[in-house]
């Protein structure tokens, strides 16, 4: 789990992202705050996305908000108590490197004017990057896997 800064309407906003150990995107969220409530909302979203395969460890940077969010999820029973919670900037390199690639895609847009347009555009960027990497396709490259991914991310009827 990690977050990066995105400029929206002349102000810095936070783009939270989570990937698994293979670099596949689990969840993402745009927020105007980087506090315990935002970390909790994002962590809850990521844990629910991985409900069939709960994580054995969570690696994040040293942001204190994540510790409180993870404890809250464990108290609510959404996250097992035996999950290893690691804070290391070196173990988080997969997602840190991915931030740079995402920002290279965002740079030509010349910024976003509103949170709504930023969230929709960033969701589209993330979806296209997942399709390009083959993260939505199980065995063969078929349109059905891509349609399923778009439906899952955007809630559209296929």
Essential attributes:
Nucleotidyltransferase, domain 5, 20% strand, 5 strands, alpha+beta, 5 helices, single chain, 158 residues, globular
How do the strands and helices of this protein lay out in sequence?
Elements: E1 2-8, E2 11-19, E3 25-31, H1 36-49, E4 57-60, H2 64-76, E5 84-87, H3 93-106, H4 115-133, H5 143-154
Parallel strand pairs: 4-5
Antiparallel strand pairs: 1-2, 2-3
Tally of helical runs = 5
Largest beta sheet, briefly? 3 strands, antiparallel
Give the % helix: 40-55%
Here the CATH topology equals Nucleotidyltransferase, domain 5
- General form: globular
**Radius of gyration, in angstroms, nearest whole number:** 16 Å
- What is the correct CATH architecture? 2-Layer Sandwich
What's the short version?
It contains five helices and five strands, in the order E-E-E-H-E-H-E-H-H-H.
Question: How is this structure best described in words?
Answer:
- The chain is an alpha+beta fold and 158 residues long.
- It contains five helices and five strands, in the order E-E-E-H-E-H-E-H-H-H.
- The two termini are 30 Å apart.
- The mean pLDDT is 80.
